[in-house]
Amino acid sequence: MPPHDGLVHPKEYDWRDSNVSLINSDLDHRVKYQSAATEPAWNDGVIGTSPGLFIWRIEDFEVVPWPKEKHGSFHEGDSYIILHSEKAKSKTEGDGGGDSEAEKDKLVHEIYFWLGLHTSQDEAGTAAYKTVELDEFLRGSATQHRELQTSPSDAFARLFPRLKILRGGVKSGFAHVEVNEEQPHVDTLLRVFKHPSPAAGRDAVLVHEVEPTWRSLDEEDVFVLDRGDKIWVWQGRKCAPMEKMRAAQVVNDLTLAKHVDVEVLAQAESRSKVVVDYLGGGDIDVLSTTFTCARPVVARDAGAAQREKMLWKLSDAGGELTFELVKKGRGIGREDLDDDDVFLLDSGRGIWVWEGKGASRAEKAMWLRVTQMYVKQHEDAASLDVAKVVQGCEGRGFWAAVEA
After folding, report:
1. Which residue numbers delimit the Gelsolin-like domain (predicted)?
2. Are the C-beta atoms of residues 123 and 133 closer than 8 Å to each other?
């Protein structure tokens, strides 16, 4: 039988003929909220009612709180959910005595699901699903972000200017990656370097565990080698003072639980060769060798500064769904957003989807598919952060992107 015999071409369905039309309907939200209300991680009386930073790690399909003392530290073999809730001013109508408006505090929520470079597919899928569930628990008021380990967004960088990324991960449903903690000691090499995102701040520094080999060394950064009985600090000849200071903090943290010798060596010193030797570079001349190694984390918008800012509108006001360019360049402002439609803002640094309060069910249902098509057609936007916000619940990051 020819390979094509017996195959049936699928019928092309109108989305209105399927239950996708129920997406964002009252029934859809009620069902999802009931599911979210059964998740213990959200039902502690604090989530959604108090400002703060809350982090959970996905462990065997479960959402497990990440200890506060570990906030800012992530394992590259894991997936995490981060909720940042902060108070913001919102305008309310006056009491009828005039046209004056009063301001009151409200909580604005940002949700990030952070995917480690070596996280398993089941962990990443659980994090994505639970992120949507958490947003539903917050009554759809949160901004959702997908975060990749290798390219943090500006908003994420502002939350964690002292980010620390470690190797290993927790046991998952389908995969097992050993965690460095609670295991017999293995040599650990930490690279300390300036945070790649300008949004993190001028003095923001990142700590990233790397392969313990001399090939991981770079003369622009500082490295901390923990071999168990001794800690070495190797300062590249071009490293920055802030990197030296951050490395000192890392060493202090490492020695709180154990008393070991610490030795700080500058690359320009001949004695720095002991670190290179220990890492397998016995035949390397440290004084004449140029040590270079690509950094494991880069700015998400690297190379994107030349892309032009654009605002697109998804609307069915004319009877059919259309996706049209509204404006491009630096003249985009708040006045270009219409309450009755959905807009996609490509800022060049990230993609934001803004949902107006009066947007139709069809517009709300189709924003994700339209965004996926947009990213597919614009290859240079494929690595950008995609975030969705609802009118009235925008955070500072969105308005900064609009007005930039």
Report:
1. 62-153, 205-255, 335-367
2. no
